[in-house]
Design a protein that fits this description.
about 140 residues; mainly alpha; about 10% strand
């Protein structure tokens, strides 16, 4: 019984680890790949990525680091859940900041990096769902004892 419980917990943990790892990788990739590219009134070609201004840079690094740190907190699921929810909130704020920066552009189009920005949000939400599922499973196994 004990070995089965450990195996189930480890299996579910891998799922949330994958989601958090993908969220972290996508967040750090948004530092390099642009969400939007086009021209502004001051420059003929500008790329809007995580390094566009200092606030975007700080938020993007915090989100990526938060996802990476959350991976190693698998023994403390409550804290892992809080950090993942904080990651969702910060990434939503980062995405909103990206879209407020679009008013600086006169012409341009969305780049492939925009998928990464929304990927971070989706992967954090998937991780929250997996952590929640894990938490429910642990509670149900504790009731059986």
């Amino acid at each position: 019984m004990f070995c089965t419980r450990v195996y189930i917990i480890d299996m579910i943990q891998r799922i949330q680890t994958i989601w958090l790892l993908l969220a972290s990788v996508c967040a750090f990739l948004t530092l390099k790949f642009p969400l939007y590219s086009g021209s502004t009134t001051t420059a003929p070609f500008v790329e809007l990525n995580g390094q566009y201004n200092i606030l975007l840079l700080i938020l993007t690094v915090i989100v990526g680091t938060l996802a990476a740190v959350s991976i190693f907190l698998f023994k403390n699921r409550k804290l892992q859940m809080r950090l993942a929810l904080a990651g969702v909130a910060l990434e939503a704020g980062c995405t909103a900041l990206y879209f407020t920066q679009l008013k600086n552009f006169t012409t341009g189009n969305f780049a492939l990096g925009s998928v990464l920005t929304f990927g971070v949000l989706v992967f954090f939400i998937m991780a929250v769902a997996a952590i929640s599922k894990d938490q429910k499973l642990i509670k149900s196994l504790d009731r059986l004892r």
